[in-house]
UniProtKB/TrEMBL annotation:
Name of one Pfam family that matches: Rv2466c-like
Organism: Streptomyces mordarskii
The name this protein goes by in its record: DsbA family protein
Classification via SUPFAM superfamilies: Thioredoxin-like (SSF52833)
Length: 211
């Protein structure tokens, strides 16, 4: 790798998840303070939870029924316009869903598409399974790196030996900025790269803080 080359960081997200949104905003900060470049991919909470839908609380099952639309629009945008559009579409969707608290409906999705410079008719794919095969393949690529017992986001980065180091999270709020973003990145890579390391966790005492 040359001195000016940036390390690719693959990031799998579902636009519906507020915690993935927090992590994604942190990754944008990391891009400013470390030589990394995020490559965005979609995964799906709806797909992830399909095998255990009967075990989930009714409120969460209802939420998952709304999860198909936004991620289907994202995968359609990627298939039709290339993976490079995902980052700006995710930002446009996530800002509306999470920071602004707008309804996850067609009107909101169309506004996000327009902000991202994409055709409004991509919103039609929210109710279409046309790219579900590609969606499931993208989801599978990410989730198989970490196992089925996690959610979104999944992050993968080349390790010192060239093999991918992958992990779920980190779950953090608010999104760290500046040197704090850099320290969290360095620390996360440090523990994730240790063979046999699996988990650090503590009870969440606050919800996502969107700033």
């Amino acid at each position: 790798m040359t001195q000016t080359a940036k390390t690719p960081v693959d990031f799998w997200f579902d636009p519906l998840c507020p915690w993935a949104w927090m992590t994604s905003r942190w990754m944008l900060e990391v891009e400013k303070v470390r030589p990394v470049e995020v490559r965005w991919h979609v995964m799906s909470l709806a797909v992830l939870n399909e095998p255990k839908m009967d075990e989930l609380p009714e409120e969460y099952r209802e939420l998952l029924t709304t999860a198909w639309g936004p991620v289907r629009v994202c995968i359609a945008a990627e298939q039709k316009h290339g993976s490079e559009v995902l980052g700006r579409l995710y930002t446009a969707l996530g800002t509306r869903f999470h920071n602004q608290g707008l309804e996850k409906n067609r009107e909101t999705i169309v506004a996000a598409l327009e902000e991202a410079g994409l055709p409004a008719e991509l919103a039609d794919y929210a109710d279409s399974d046309a790219y579900d095969t590609e969606l499931r393949a993208s989801h599978k690529e990410g989730i198989e790196m970490v196992g089925q017992d996690v959610g979104t986001p999944v992050i993968a980065v080349p390790g010192a030996d060239g093999e991918q180091v992958a992990f779920f999270g980190p779950v953090v709020t608010p999104a760290p900025k500046g040197e704090d973003a850099a320290k969290l990145w360095d620390g996360t890579l440090l523990v994730a790269s240790i063979p046999g390391f699996y988990e650090i966790k503590r009870t969440r005492t606050v919800g996502p803080i969107f700033d």
